[in-house]
Write a structure and sequence with these properties.
The structure holds two protein chains of two kinds.
Chain A (H helix, E strand, L loop, with lengths): L6 E9 L6 H4 L19 H4 L23 E4 L11 H9 L3 E4 L4 H8 L4 E4 L2 H13 L4 E5 L4 E4 L6 H6 L23 H10 L2 E3 L4 H9 L3 H6 L2 H10 L9
Parallel strand pairs in A: 1-2, 2-3, 3-4
Antiparallel strand pairs in A: 1-5, 5-6, 6-7
Chain B lengths: L1 H4 L4 H9 E3 L6 E4 L2 E4 L5 H10 L9 E4 L19 H17 L3 E2 L9 H7 L8 E4 L13 E4 L2 H10 L1 E4 L3 E8 L8 H12 L7 E6 L1 H4 L3 H9 L8 E4 L3 H7 L9 H10 L12 E6 L6 E3 L7 E3 L13 H14 L14 E4 L7 H11 L9 E4 L4 H9 L2 H7 L3 E2 L20 E4 L14 E4 L2 H10 L6 H6 L8
Parallel strand pairs in B: 3-4, 3-6, 4-5, 6-7, 9-10, 9-12, 10-11, 15-16, 15-18, 16-17, 18-19
Antiparallel strand pairs in B: 1-2, 2-8, 13-14
Helix pairs in contact in B: 3-6, 7-9, 13-16
């Protein structure tokens, strides 16, 4: 069952590569496990380590000291194509990533992510480029991802009243341990200001409303379907089995 | 009901029939007719069942095989040597799970064992109009029979086992029409590689492909499976071909299809499945089959493909910065130079196998070119039939002898070097020409490099020791691109 997620703030790991496939996220030889945990070691393994097991030089982005503890991955277009392995979101979560921002996600990867509380956040190509610019200008910029308000904010500020109110939800959203709005650390430089203007202080993101509800409540989808067994039995009564695998 | 008069596509008909219910704002609860299970993506799902204290709702609509991590070489003693303890434990887990929950298992040692997407159609388990899922992205293969078949993750495997249903949003539809006729030496693999080269690996995201047109109709079932198999490489979770006489002829008499009067009823039902006249698709694209050439990939995703007569593209020609970066990275990994011809590049290994191209027709095509010829010195040919039944059929026809006489290795069935989990893999830096479906970095072994191609192109390349156009050999010795 996914852990409930509401809002969190983190610095960002940039990965400006397109079509990052699930074989890169977690190579197939790590799929021999019968557990969901312990996959952080395999995450992007072959981009992090040489064939002899040494860290690559220069190190892959995840292995730079400053990246430790970051929970948001800003990736290139079409993240997660390839196999259906749920080990890909498991590995990202094991390392600590809780949200991936891209212009798009492969269908199976997105479904697998949502079932595990890893947020796939789709942004427009323009905002995507602006986010990379912002990160280039201020590599330590923080983003707040607010699932309740369905918005991403630059910095640690509370949900924008207009957005939260406009969506018919409470404007006041609990942000544990987060103080008043703070400007990005390097605010004032021209590059940051321009990138920030292009990103916007806060922007809304789309997410499947059902998946969002499940995540906010920490509800389990399998439990939801098990709760509808009478309807399933009724459907089966009027739809004979197409095949008997035991026959 | 309005739905009975509005023209509907094949996908819409299957979808509508399988929606159990849909709460407002929620995805549909979609009933699944057939659930295919293998060792790699299922253990955590069975653990979840035990934690919940629920059982498998329909073991008789579930079927399992061992394919991903099993060895393809005969060992000594009782069984085959598994690559390591962890893989052996995983295989043992599947056997335990199937025993405990009453799921039929076509495991190692069984004459019906094979790659999950080969045995489903082969045993007649996969049928038109069905919903079929598996914890494997190449499940779209079964769409060749006119089924809505797609890959799922392990959480969904658990949901399936527990409820025989999934939560799904209605997919958008994408017509891929292939007009005209394929030239000799050009086959289904070339069609799908050409499609993906055109639309990109994300081109079909959110959609289901329906393959239509004269060229698709002219294909046999195995070739249709090759095309549907790689739908996911174009971003589409599923891909279908409407059932027709070719489909019914393929299925008739197979182990799990209806017999006698029930067969006639089934065929009558299946004949109502094709998309209605006037049905519309959310998107569409048309390819001209007669203009297609054998295709080869040069890069690190299946969309990076060119005609075998073509050249490696230049990053400078990419439309944007991201594309330039991607191509730079791919060519660096592949150690290829912009503008160089793809034909003539040395290959170290030729892999003939995988759920894309390991069926009897694929083996016949490759064998037709290899008969009486030798694999080039310094090149290794690995032939891995898709199932034990394919293997037995090939041996009855003497194809194994053709491959061995040419210098190739003839193996037991499994996924093998397509996913490189079982010890069959490339050495760092090696080049393979492979009939499989993915050329991702390291897919066939850490540091290995993959050219994807058809069985004909792979066979011609094995003989030449370099990437080679199969058409000169095919012209000399016409090859039947069919076969049940």
């Amino acid at each position: 069952m996914p852990e409930p997620v509401t809002v969190f703030t983190s610095r960002v790991v940039p990965l400006p590569a397109e079509n990052v496939d699930t074989d890169q996220i977690i190579p197939a030889r790590y799929l021999k496990t019968t557990e969901k945990s312990g996959l952080a070691e395999g995450l992007f393994h072959d981009w992090r380590f040489t064939a002899t097991g040494d860290l690559r030089e220069p190190p892959f982005v995840l292995d730079r000291p400053k990246m430790q503890g970051r929970r948001i991955l800003l990736a290139g277009a079409n993240f997660g194509p390839g196999s259906s392995r749920e080990h890909a979101p498991w590995a990202l979560l094991s390392w600590g990533i809780r949200a991936v921002i891209s212009t798009g996600f492969a269908d199976i990867f997105r479904a697998n992510s949502l079932k595990n509380g890893l947020l796939p956040i789709v942004v427009s190509p323009e905002r995507h480029a602006a986010l990379f610019d912002l990160l280039a200008a201020d590599p330590d910029v923080e983003l707040t991802i607010d699932l309740e308000a369905q918005e991403v904010r630059v910095g640690r500020g509370p949900a924008s009243a207009a957005r939260a109110g406009g969506a018919g939800r409470a404007a006041s959203v609990a942000v544990p341990g987060v103080g008043a709005a703070t400007a990005p650390s390097a605010a004032g430089t021209a590059g940051t200001a321009a990138a920030l203007a292009a990103v916007g202080r806060a922007f809304a993101f789309e997410i499947d409303p059902f998946a969002r509800k499940m995540l906010l409540e920490g509800t389990d989808e399998i439990g939801y379907v098990l709760g509808r067994l009478p309807s399933i039995e009724a459907w089966e009564a009027s739809h004979p089995a197409r095949v008997n695998t035991l026959g | 009901m309005a739905d009975t008069v509005r023209p509907r596509t094949l996908v819409e008909k299957i979808w509508d029939e399988h929606v159990v219910l849909q709460d407002e704002g929620a995805p549909a609860v979609l009933a699944i007719d057939l659930h295919l299970v293998h060792e790699v993506t299922s253990p955590q799902a069975f653990t979840g069942l035990r934690t919940r204290g629920v059982t498998v709702r329909h073991p008789e609509r579930t079927v399992a095989t061992e394919d991903h991590s099993i060895p393809t070489l005969r060992g000594t003693g009782r069984g085959l040597p598994v690559v390591d303890d962890q893989a052996a434990f995983q295989v043992a887990q599947l056997e335990r799970n199937c025993r405990e929950f009453g799921i039929p298992l076509h495991g190692v040692g069984s004459e019906t064992q094979g790659i999950v997407h080969v045995i489903g159609p082969e045993l007649g388990l996969s049928q038109p109009g069905m919903t079929i899922v598996c914890g494997d992205s190449h499940t779209a293969t079964h769409g060749a029979l006119g089924a809505l078949a797609f890959g799922i993750g392990t959480s969904e495997v658990e949901m399936l086992l527990a409820t025989q249903c999934l939560l799904q949003r209605r997919p958008k539809t994408y017509e891929v029409r292939v007009d005209g006729r394929l030239a000799p030496g050009v086959s289904a693999k070339d069609v799908i590689l050409a499609l993906i080269a055109r639309i990109g690996v994300g081109g079909g995201t959110g959609h289901v492909f329906e393959y239509t047109g004269e060229a698709i109709r002219a294909l046999g079932m195995e070739q249709r499976m090759t095309i549907c198999n790689m739908s996911i490489e174009g971003g589409a979770r599923a891909g279908l071909v409407a059932p027709d006489d070719t489909t019914f002829e393929y299925l008739h008499g197979r182990r799990h299809v209806p017999q006698g009067a029930a067969w006639d009823e089934a065929v009558a039902r299946w004949r109502r499945l094709p998309s209605d006249d006037g049905a519309t698709y959310d998107r569409s694209i048309t390819l001209d089959a007669s203009a297609l050439e054998p295709m080869v990939t040069y890069g690190t995703n299946p969309g990076m493909g060119v005609a075998v007569t073509g050249r490696v593209p230049s990053p400078g020609d990419a439309p944007d910065e991201a594309g330039r970066r991607a191509l730079d990275k791919a060519l660096a990994y592949m150690d290829l130079r912009p503008g160089e011809p793809i034909a003539g590049r040395k290959v170290d290994v030729v892999f003939l196998g995988s759920c894309t191209n390991s069926r009897i027709g694929d083996l016949r095509q490759a064998a037709a070119l290899l008969r009486g010829r030798r694999v080039a010195p310094g090149t290794r040919l690995l032939v891995v039939p898709g199932s034990q039944q394919v293997k037995a059929q090939a041996e009855r026809e003497g194809l194994d002898e053709v491959f061995r006489a040419a210098g190739g290795e003839w193996r037991e069935s499994g996924c093998s070097m397509c996913i490189a989990m079982n010890g069959d893999q490339l050495e760092p830096g090696q080049y393979a020409i492979s009939t499989s479906n993915r050329n991702f970095e390291g897919r066939q072994g850490t540091g290995g490099r993959t050219f994807l191609a058809s069985p004909l192109t792979a066979a011609a390349s094995a003989i030449a020791g370099v990437v080679a156009d199969p058409r000169p050999l095919v012209d000399r010795d016409p090859v039947t691109v069919e076969g049940r």
